[in-house]
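Let's practice the habit of predicting before peeking. Look at the sequence and jot down your guess about where helices and strands might fall. Then scroll down.
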Amino acid sequence: MVALPAICLTLQNIGPAARVVFYDYLPLEEGIIVITAAVLGASLGGQVPRWLRRAQPTAAARRWPIARLVALGLLMSWIASEHVRAFPASASVAERDAWASARVSKYVALKHVVAAVPEVQRDVGRIVAIAPTARDKHRFAREMNGDDMFFALDVIGERGSGVFYVQCTLDEFRVYDWRPGRWVIHGRESRIEHVPELVPH
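Done guessing? Here is the structure:
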């Protein structure tokens, strides 16, 4: 039982999956995964003392060796899948952008909002690329009226680049709630108090 919490903490705090966190409105899938992992971990963990003592296997163990190996494989596959799907923090801007576009449903709308901010256009000119930063943590949560987005975005233009820190709730067409954003470029920070209610396209 000690191994399972250690694995979860490692994935959340050390592993690359910690860069982007998703909170679903009804997190049924995540709950099923956690319960399944807990059951498998508890079942397999109970065998560790026997393995350490090099004891003779019990009759039950002799009857179910394949089932235990399959269970172990499922648990390890679940752990590995978290890293396979994890945010590629060390990847290029294009790869980080592609990852977020494929997995964050309102990410494209968020890019349109940021790219249309006058201060951003003034400082960097025409936008060449936008992507989640490699060093910050990002999260998004699904709500009834859209997605809550908490992102730090690398914004690269023809005349320079900066980082836009954004917190808002939006869907594909409308910004429902905008908390003041921060636009940082060349050590200078600007607060972005307002954006248009309709998402630019």
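How did you do? The chain has a mean pLDDT of 78.
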